[in-house]
Amino acid sequence: GAWPGGCDSVEDASLSALASAAQEQVQVVLAVQIANDGALSDAARGLGAQIGAAPIALRASLRQLRFALLTVAETHYGNAGERASANAARDELTQAVAPIQQALQKIGAGCIASTCIDLQDAGSDRLAEICGAFQKGFSAGMAPVTPQATSAVATPPKSASPAVAVVAATTELKMAPTAAGLPAEVSGEPSDVVARFYFEAEKTKVAKVRELRQKPKPEAGLATVEVELEATGNLKEYKTGGTLSLLPENDPADVEAAVQLMGLTPADLSKWITFVPPAGSAQGTTIKRPFPTPCTLGDALSKYCDLTRAPTKKMLTALQPKLSEQAARDCVAKLLADVDALKVLQGAKLCCRMHEFWAMLGVKTMDPLDFLLHCPRQKPREFTIASSPKATPQRITLCVSLTSHELPDMAPMCKALVDAGCLPSAELPTGRGRFYGTCSKWLTTRLKAGAVVLAKQRPSPLHLPEKDVPVIMIGAGAGVAPFRGFWEELRRGSQTAPTALFFGCRHPEQDWLFKEEMSSAVKLAATGCAALQRMQVGPKRPLTSLFTAFSRPGEGKEGQYVQDQIRAQSMSVKHWIEKMSGIVYICGSTAMGNGVLDALAEALEGGRDTVDAMKKDGRIVVEMWG
Questions:
Q1: Among 296, 393, 436, 617, which residue has the least CB neighbours within 10 Å?
Q2: CA 423/CA 342 separation, integer angstroms
Q3: Mean pLDDT over all residues of the chain?
Q4: Highest mean pLDDT (candidates 120-134, 183-197, 402-416)
Q5: CA–CA separation, 533 vs 536, rounded Å?
Q6: What is the largest CA-CA distance in the chain?
Q7: Weakest mean pLDDT among 52-56, 201-205, 214-218, 364-368
Q8: At residue 100, what are phi and psi to the nearest 5 degrees?
Q9: Residue pair 543/487 in contact by the 8 Å Cβ criterion
Q10: Torsions phi, psi of 447, nearest 5?
Q11: C-alpha–C-alpha distance, residues 107 and 60, integer Å
């Protein structure tokens, strides 16, 4: 059937609707859905092309359009613990719809706001946040545009198709002992929004890796490191409290398992690879590049392929007809038709790894090209920067804790999948042990000084206020990261208002991160001795107060959390916030952050309503994860 307005396609219908909305001067939210790898749908790409080829009369109508752009994605993070920030990857995903935004802005339409919603995070709070941002944008708006002298909305063209370079539908994989033995590189765009990171990120060296815990136990999941990177290129523009995106490396055991699955040997990891158009392609044919080449097969598997999760629906769809085992083909077909079963297999609870999935299906080998092209891309992880450019302009510091937990028993879920015909047998992976976060394990156990990594930086809401008002910092464990940058910056500033740090960990002699540095940043007057304050010498001590909470102090002592210290210091906190317009910063786990917000609601006049209003006004800044 025809689309609304008698249009022949969704692109035509969308363009016609936009033109009508522009003429009527109504507020428009343009929602564009993208795949979990960041690729635009054919309809979305078609809409961008239609806008660019629109006739003059239609352009005149669209010039009046004021719109908010919403990118809708559904990512599949294999494990929730991998997500260093609830906002991970949103900025990258939003870039995918840039061609549509740019096409509209080029003809004079105005974008009042642009953001991305990940359907796995689409809770009521996130939806309310987006609606509020759009409402604020439309209210502040842009100067109204005088309607153009046109009496009717033009009909969009039916078959606009601007000339584009020929992109090969398929590619071939070339492998050689050295890079010199490969054919010349073929130009091409990154294959998706995640791959774009690999091409845009800065290559930088690791300057230092230092364990911060007094008694680390990596095998039990207890390790926290300080990682120092050279601030090169765009990284030199980093901000205090900003965000650093870092591309991790897979565990060597997962890489070896992937090599075996491709019918290769560990010796092949040192060979060089690249992608080229198929033989006989026209001169000038380009390709979609999944990652930068030439590179070694080892780099391709360790850096650019996500081997820590089950295959995505996209990968299963592409490989199902190519599997040599009939039983495996039948199972994958049933799995693709069973949405609930697919969610179970890909869920964070199961923690099924790539090689585990194919082993359960009985798949012994697959074509290296198919695996490399269709394996989900490795996503960068985001970390809050733990340094200040005013103190270390040539270095960026991170504070990273190892993510770890016991792996669940796969038997019940796998039995259900076998019963549904989605797995051929109940033969389960053995020796699973503990789960460790891919990036956090790499950083805390394998990363060494001198290594080269891929990184990008961007600012975040975690920055010191411009006004001289109280600064209340609340963090537990690695959540202290931005506040280390804060006290470095405060040491070099002229702040006179109170600056208080609430810090929590398990034990003062086991995992007090930056213990000596933190203690030396506290004014001596905080000890209660005025004489020491008068005798103070050496570097400026920027923290007025330090309140610590130890959840497992031992020796029969009662454990405390940072929210308990907020309650204990409620009179001071209330005064700093209500009488001195103080700003509160909270960084750490979701459980800790919610507990702190509850404690603040108890301390402040107006309770939860006041806390919610302060969050909206930017006077309570929260960054939580996990």
A1: 617
A2: 11
A3: 85
A4: 183-197
A5: 5
A6: 86
A7: 52-56
A8: -70, -45
A9: yes
A10: -70, 135
A11: 8
User: How many CB atoms are located within 10 Å of the residue 283 CB?
Assistant: 6
Residue-level pLDDT at 83 = 40
Amino acid at 240: T
Q: How many CB atoms lie within 10 A of CB 6?
A: 10
Q: How far apart are CA 367 and CA 369, in angstroms?
A: 5
Which of 480, 460, 400, 383 shows the shortest CA–CA distance to 85?
383
What tokens appear for 388 in the block? 């200040």
User: Which has the higher per-residue pLDDT, 275 or 523?
Assistant: 275
Sign of CA dihedral 417, 423, 429, 435: negative
Q: Does an H or E element contain 112, and which?
A: strand 110-118
Q: What is the bridge-based pairing of β-strands 620-625 and 583-589?
A: parallel
CA separation, residue 245 to residues 380, 381, 432, 455, 593 (Å): 6, 5, 29, 5, 22
Scan for tokens 């460790």, then name that residue: 436
Structure tokens at 259: 């090599």
Lowest mean pLDDT among 166-170, 223-227, 526-530: 526-530
Give the best-scoring range by mean pLDDT among 145-154, 536-545, 575-584. 575-584
Count Cβ atoms below 10 Å from residue 65 Cβ, excluding itself.
Answer: 23
Pick the more confident residue, 110 or 35. Answer: 110
In whole angstroms, give the CA distance from residue 498 to residue 542. 9
Q: What Rg value do the Cα atoms of the chain yield, rounded?
A: 27
The 10s digit of each residue's pLDDT in 476-494 is 999 999 999 999 999 999 9
Q: Which residues pair with 334 in a beta bridge?
A: none
DSSP per position, 262-302: TT--GGGGGSEEEEEPPTTPPTT-B--BSS-SSEEHHHIII
Quote the CA–CA distance of 626 and 590 in Å, as a whole number: 6
How far CA 42 is from CA of 10, 52, 159, 312, 375, in Å, comes to 10, 15, 14, 20, 21
Angstrom distance (rounded) from CA 371 to CA 306:
11
DSSP notation for 37-93: TSPBPHHHHHHHHHHHT--HHHHHHHTT-EEEEEEEE----S-GGG-SSTTTTHHHH
| 618's tokens | 């930017």
Rounded distance between C-alpha atoms, residue 300 and residue 177, angstroms: 15
How far is Cα 459 from Cα 623, in angstroms, rounded to an integer?
13
Residue 176: φ, ψ to 5°: -150, 160
Strands (E) located in 177-285: 202-211, 224-230, 243-246, 272-276
